[in-house]
Amino acid sequence: MKKTCVFASVLCIMLCGCSKNDSPAGNSAKTALNISSASLNLFMTRGTDAEDLKTEGAAIGLFCNAITGYEARNNVKYVYSGSGSPQWKGEAESDIIYLNDNNAQLAAYYPYESEHPLTTFTLFAQEANAAADLCYRKYNDLSSDPPLNNTSNTVSLLLSHAYAKITFKITRDVSYSSTCKISAIKIEDGTNAGTKLIPASVLNIEDGSYSNDAAGSVSCDITTIDAIPDVSVPGEASVFMIPVAVLDDTTIFTFTVDGNEMATTFATDEESSLHELAAGTNYNLNVTIKGEALGITSVSVSDWNDSPIAETLEPKI
Fold it and tell me: Which of 202, 246, 263, 299 could be a cystine partner for 212, CB 3.0 to 4.6 Å?
């Protein structure tokens, strides 16, 4: 099950256009879009409740499709204010979307980028960080989704994580006596063909499609584990990955530990819990560094979407 971010929003009677005065002839009165709440699901274990996004100044971007009765609106900025009556609102008069009596299509994403007028976003496999954690909701389906117009003006926007995530929980065994600084992680297909892993892709939030995918290995610098001093307390590093429907039968993980590369080949065939990289899913790999070998003792899916993996991975220098 894909991991999701949930933005709950209320749209009051509205017309879409560059201003309130741009309504098409014959359409009824309009009122500014009013987002009552926004909430983000964690990369959840199954059924985890959403967490309200109530950070002062937090912003989401909205797109209104150019369909009957509506002009295209691109990257409209709505900002959260907790002062007075907490609310989401357009940052300026021009940052307002209106509904009329035609059905509208809205797409949304978070976190907001000021210079992003397009519905396409370039994604890179990289160390996980909040700024890169793109969450989106594609255009609603006019034929099947609840109508969105000035008489049916309440909508919940379900924002999905664009990336899959792998979290490495790395323990230092008593047999390993050095600092255990993890400075880089490389992930590559286990065959010479190397046609499954994707280092970069372009996501179109209009329909949720990924494109311009060229296969290759993934290499990420790691900034979160300068040392693992306590053998009972693991260090943790996470990597955002481009979603992949089916992984190669084996995958090679290479960790740079105290300047030395330690690698192992891990089974990712259809019998493995790590046989795909699903958007919104966090694959947890428990890793042990011991002597000159690195062992992945188990894999599970949690946080975003749990996907347990029980095999052991033991990379070596």
Answer: 202
